[in-house]
Amino acid sequence: MADADLLIKNARVVRPDDPSTDDPAAVDIAVSGGVVTAVGPNLPVARADRVLDADGLLAFPGVIDAHQHWGIYQDLAADTDSESRACAQGGVTTALTYMRTGRYYLNRGGAYRDFVPEVLDRMAGRAFVDHALHLAPMTTEHIAEIPSLIKEFGVISFKIFMFYGGHGLHGRSADQADFLMIPATERYDLAHFEFVMRGIQHARKRFGPGLSLSLHCETAEIMAAYTALVEQDPTLTGLRAYSASRPPHSEGLAITMASYLAHETGLANINLLHLSSAKAVAAALTMAKAFPQVDFRREVTIGHLLADVDTAHGIGGKVNPPLRERPDVEALWRHLLAGEIDWVVSDHACCRDEQKFGPDRDDVFAAKSGFGGAEYLLPGLVGEGRKRGLPLSRVAALTAWNPARRYGLRGKGTIAAGFDADIVLVDPDARWTVRATDSESAQEYTPFEGFEMTARVTDVFLRGHRIFGDGRVQGDPRGRYLRRDPA
Fold first, then answer.
1. Which is deepest, 63, 130, 205, 484, by most CB within 10 Å?
2. Is residue 392 helix, strand or coil?
3. Rounded to the nearest 10 degrees, what angle do helices 112-123 and 140-153 cross at?
4. How far is residue 62's CA from residue 319's CA, in Å, rounded to a whole number?
5. How far is CA 189 from the centre of its chain?
6. For residues 325 and 406, what is the distance between their CA atoms, to the nearest angstrom?
7. Residues ≥6 apart with Cβ < 8 Å to 135
8. In a structure prediction context, what are the per-residue pLDDT tens digits for the chain, which is 487 residues long?
9. pTM, rounded to two decimals
10. CB 217 within 8 A of CB 161
11. Contact predicate 447/364, CB 8 Å
């Protein structure tokens, strides 16, 4: 017999690599030193400092939300605190946040060697969940910095925003004159994207195959033209108007261009972010067949799976790419059930009420883009997924195992001996109604307001420490910054 720091009894463990856990039997989970030491029935533990009876609840590996934006609209230190609380509330134990120079975030340009230390300093000691950074090379200097970002900060994942430089972040509400904060001699365009890919591919040869590039795929020229058309059409309003201004074929075209550039540059690891439409996924699958040497991964958000232009609660649901019509939502689910989507994320970007809306609260083009949603990622996917026949093991793969493997989080992603004790207990039969006032996020609204959920997170453990239980966040911030290895 061995001692344990924590013993969770009678938990129905869901494992991403084991379809038999789609209807799991109750077992025990032993934890010591922040790591799972054993999983099995009636574990012979001599003594446990803490014992929790899960009473037959499902146990999922802690969610790795691979797409968040801490600090985009409010002070990064404050956002790290409040939005990591929202993460804990929803079962997210690791958050990967996209960061860049330019307007928003730290509102500064310059080199990442100066930028990243400030980011880490503002986050330090404030996060309730583990966290890591994706970075966007915005300038030629940033491309040259890729090797040092890998060595000094353990950053192994990078990003391109394909529509920046040619269209506003929010539509006509954005002032593009100094948005990018890059030197006047540089352009953020297809040529820059090519050179980013070449820079990452060069680093892959030097440091290892674990480096990857993520892309926000929308086409600026298409969106600018369609925005002008939509604004002249009085029959289009609200989220439907915003979706029409950034049409699905804009996504498909950008995916096609990005994929060819990956082929041209020999960059093998490409992540296609927040695919929102049938056309986007069709383009992504077509490119995977055209360029089989490129390891494409496809991402969707819980927002695009749960809400559409009619069901979202008001224009607070404005996001890039937009929420779509119901047929696109159903198409995403078909591809998800077919195994053609690799992970599901929140794209969490807290935007408080006074920042989100313009003087006319009904003018979608005057509103900021983005909203929070980490609180609803796991319960939303479990609840809606069960209705549609999504296996529980697949939920665990989509929310934990797959992003862990892609993004170099080798100690995370499953509940098994030797892995971090990031564990989420879920009641799959709980029914509750989403209310923004119940969220730990600093955001005062949610596009999911009034949605009926049919699964609930009850307890969350980060490396064996209980960070959520009894309906509230527990203890002090224990989240760590995760330096990742590309080898």
1. 63
2. helix
3. 50
4. 26
5. 25
6. 30
7. 98, 99, 100, 112, 116, 142, 149, 155, 157, 158, 159
8. 678 999 999 999 999 988 988 999 999 999 999 999 999 999 988 888 999 999 999 999 999 999 999 999 999 999 999 999 999 999 999 999 999 999 999 999 999 999 999 999 999 999 999 999 999 999 999 999 999 999 999 999 999 999 887 776 766 545 454 788 998 889 999 999 999 999 999 999 999 999 999 999 999 999 999 999 999 999 999 999 999 999 999 999 999 999 999 999 999 999 999 999 999 999 999 999 999 999 999 999 999 999 999 999 999 999 999 999 999 999 999 999 999 999 999 999 999 998 899 999 999 999 999 999 999 999 999 999 999 999 999 999 999 999 999 999 999 999 999 999 999 999 999 999 999 999 999 999 999 999 999 999 999 999 999 999 999 999 999 999 999 999 9
9. 0.96
10. no
11. no
How many CB atoms neighbour CB 268 within 10 A? 19
Find all residues with CB under 8 Å of 235, minimum gap 6, and list them.
Answer: none
Q: Which amino acid is at 24?
A: P
Listed residue (347, 357, 363) closest to 275, CA to CA: 347
Find all residues with CB under 8 Å of 40, minimum gap 6, and list them.
27, 28
d(C-alpha 461, C-alpha 453), whole Å: 22
Give the count of alpha carbons within 13 A of 261, CB side only.
Answer: 26
Categorise residue 214: left if φ over 0, alpha if ψ from -120 to 50, beta otherwise: beta
Joined together, the tokens standing for residue 19 give 């379809």
Scanning the structure block, which residue is given the tokens 């993520």?
214
362: CB partners within 8 A, 6+ apart = 237, 238, 315
Compute how many other C-beta atoms are within 10 angstroms of the C-beta atom of residue 237: 14
Quote helix, strand, coil % in the chain, to nearest 5. Answer: 35, 25, 40
